[in-house]
Amino acid sequence: MSSDVVIRAENVGKEYRLGAINHGTLYRDLQSWYARLRGRPDPNVGVQDMARKRDRAMRISGDRFQALSGVSFDVCRGEVIGVVGSNGAGKSTLLKIISRITAPTSGRVCLRGRVASLLEVGTGFHPELTGRENVYLNGAILGMRRAEVTEKFDRIVEFAEIDNFIDTPVKRYSSGMYVRLAFSVAAHLEPEILLVDEVLAVGDANFQRKCMGRMQEVGKGGRTILFVSHNMTAINSICQKTICMEEGRLAEMGQTAQVVQNYLSRGKVGVNGTYSLDPDSLDGKAVIYKVTMLDVLGREAGIVDLSAGFSIELQYELREALSGVSVGLQVLAEDGYTSIFSLSDPELRPERLEKREPGRYRAVVRFPACALNTGAFYVRAGISSRFSIYSVVENLRFEVVDSIGIIQMLGQARKPSISALQFPWDVERI
Amino acid sequence: MTPNSEGSRSRDCAEQNLCEQRWDVVIKPRRRFLSVDLASVWRYRDLIWMFFRRDFIAFYKQTVLGPMWYLIQPSLTALTYYVVFGRIANLSTNGLPPFLFYMSGIVLWTYFAVCLTNNSEVFSKNAALFGKVYFPRLVVPISVVMSGMTAFAIQFALLILVSLGYVFAGNGVDLPGLSFLVVPLLVVYVAALGMGVGLVVSALTVRFRDLAFAAGFVTQLWMYASPVVYPFQQIPSKYHGFFHVNPMTAPIETLRHVMFGTPDVSMALWLSNLAVTAGFLILGVLLFSRAESNAMDTV
Q1: Do A137 and B54 touch (CB under 8 A)?
Q2: Is residue B21 part of a domain?
Q3: Which of B133, B292, B293 has the most A C-beta neighbours within 10 Å, making it the best mutation to test the interface with A?
Q4: Which residues in chain A have Cβ-Cβ distances shorter than 8 Å to B29?
Q5: Residue pair A84/A263 in contact by the 8 Å Cβ criterion
Q6: Is residue B148 in a domain?
Q7: Does the beta-carbon distance from A140 to B46 stay under 8 Å?
Q8: Which domain does B215 fall in, by range?
Q9: Which residues of B touch A99 (CB under 8 A)?
Q10: Is residue B163 one of the residues assigned to a domain?
Q11: pLDDT at A387 over 90
């Protein structure tokens, strides 16, 4: 029913101006203006434009970049909607517009009810303040009245499981406690519309389960949730419908399973087993700019051999010294969300959680032969810390084939297992 | 969707009108003309208070030298002015003990400068927060001027202590009685002015980042254009027009008048100063409201 629509986006567009119009400083604006006056080439143009020219050239016209264009959709009360799309498809821009962090350049968004956005947990937490004071501060930032926080205070503390430390400054909290408290405040905000961007990926597995449970609970309570995530498992388990963004446009909206499947089959970022972008075209404190599948001889390959083993190479850049950061790698099954391997580089070397110096890095993960059975798989790589996700690359597709025929030899097209590892059998007659 | 007046479409029209009404928030491209949403600022008044509390707590949890600094800074500055302008340049202080004269000017000026500087950095200092959560951005400037009052209160208390010292030492200084009650009004006036100018600068720095440096420098020069180190009465009347436009003239002069009984400030000076301040405040709030919707794209 149309009367139940709580979010209506009508032809929403967002355009960013690139370099030439505004250089960010009055000095450069004057310099450009003076150059034009004398008929000389503008000294400030060019360099900046070159840097931005990336694979999205389609969306750049002149000095304008179309981050979003013509996005329209309706969301009804009580719906939990997933938003998927590759990096730069416009998911976050869309969420930023709906949460009023930035204004659209065309179209409009109509909302009914109170909106709260969870684009990051712990926004505005102050380390010197106690847990209690931060709950009130954070609650107020998220739009709660003081009386409302007081009323929910006990439940917030209980959910976060930190009751004894509530009057301790949060700078003394462990990272787990910090995240739990931050999420707990946000989870008890009771907006009619909740916008969530990837926050569920923080905290330990136990707490993540709890967060997911809370999200589902919130959804059942007649609230509307818009959930942006790269995590297909999460999208599948809590969203009925999903929006797929592509190149700043809404590519598809419909039942989650269908949209996710279409998205994965369409979004073959790395057809040849390689994902590679110019690092300068990516924003962020830490960015992954290259993910490559390598065969046993170290050649780039989108198809690797079952009996030979393969490696996945990541190249990333840290723009500032970061601590508590882990670089992770997942190999997912063909359905796009069953995770077969979940690896992270501090796992066997915890000292990597300490400060990492800025610079470019190359990491290679070697997989033994037969680790994966034949079939298609997806690679997902990310850089994250306890509180935020810096960079995610996903949907790098590769295939494992059996060119020698070990499996066929046994008279089957495919062994009914994910891994094809074989282990020795000790057999004796007794 | 604009309501259509044609008869055949009247039903659609009614439905559309219904649609228009039931939305709580309509997010549109940045408005062409200026508008300010003060109602939503009022709805977020608890947040203003929480920001003030946060700054206050962070303030007293500083090291010992932190709060001490607020006492050292005006004392040493007043001493310097005493030597340079009082002793060497021999500028008049309207018959007041020079130390008191300079200190009273410095205390009020410092509060103004703090309001101005901190507000001009609102977008860059809060980029992390503004980039993640929506709330009426005007909440921050308001809490900034409130937080500045903490330091001002400490410095003003020091000024009163020093004045009392002079009274007991019998240097001809007399503290007045009731006219003292004007001081809070002066503080509000200075806060409004500092916020107004600061907001103008902050809105401009969204586009021109180098203006932030210019703002610091201009603030410094502005002090010498205000009667901080010299009394207004020393100014030849042909320059009075300038001081009518400089909105810091009246508050500093009035503070000295109510505290130490220096000559009164004319109504004309006050009215023109008030007009300039009101202008800055309105312009600042309008420019800031205009800048806030797209500020996060550039910071």
Answers
A1: yes
A2: no
A3: B133
A4: 103-108
A5: yes
A6: yes
A7: yes
A8: 37-298
A9: 133-134
A10: yes
A11: no
- A373: Cβ contacts below 8 Å, ≥ 6 apart: A306, A400, A407, A414, A415, A417, A418, A419, A420
Please tell me the distance in Å from B193's CA to the nearest CA on chain A.
25
The secondary structure of A178-217 as a DSSP string is HHHHHHHHHHT---SEEEEESGGGSS-HHHHHHHHHHHHH
Residues A127 and A169 sit within 8 Å (Cβ to Cβ): yes
Instruction: State pLDDT tens for residues A153-204.
Output: 999 998 888 878 889 888 888 877 887 888 888 878 778 888 887 655 555 6
pTM recorded for the entire structure: 0.71
Delimit the domains of chain A by residue range: 19-62, 72-266, 274-409
**Which residues of B are less than 8 Å from A27 in CB distance?**
210
> Over 50: is that where the pLDDT of B193 sits?
yes
**Which residues of A fall within a CB distance of 8 Å from B58?**
126, 128-129
Would you say A408 and A356 are in contact if contact means Cβ atoms under 8 Å apart?
no
Provide the CATH topology of domain A72-266: Rossmann fold (3.40.50)
Mean pLDDT for A265-289 is: 71
Look at domain A274-409 and name its CATH class: mainly beta
- The angle formed by the CA atoms of residues A184, A187 and A188, to the nearest 5 degrees, is 90
Can you read off the two tokens belonging to residue A317? Answer: 């850049």
Examine the pLDDT at A123 and tell me if it is beyond 90. Answer: no
CA atoms of B73 and B95, how far apart (whole Å) = 24
Contact yes or no for B203/B36 (Cβ under 8 A): no
Taking CB atoms and an 8 Å limit, are A25 and B57 in contact across chains? no
Min Cα distance B37 → chain A (Å) is 14
Confidence of residue A31 (pLDDT cuts 50, 70, 90): low
ipTM of the complex: 0.79
Distance from CA of B125 to the nearest CA of A (A): 12
Whole-number Å distance between alpha carbons of A285 and A327: 13
Residue B23 lies in a domain: no
Q: What is the count of structural domains for chain B?
A: 1
The token pair that represents A375 in the structure block: 């079939």
Say yes or no for a CB contact (<8 Å) between A140 and B132: no
Write out pLDDT tens, residues A340-361. Answer: 898 988 888 888 888 889 999 9
Chain A interface includes B6 (CB < 8 A): no
Among A97, A119, A137, the residue with its CB nearest the CB of B27 is: A97
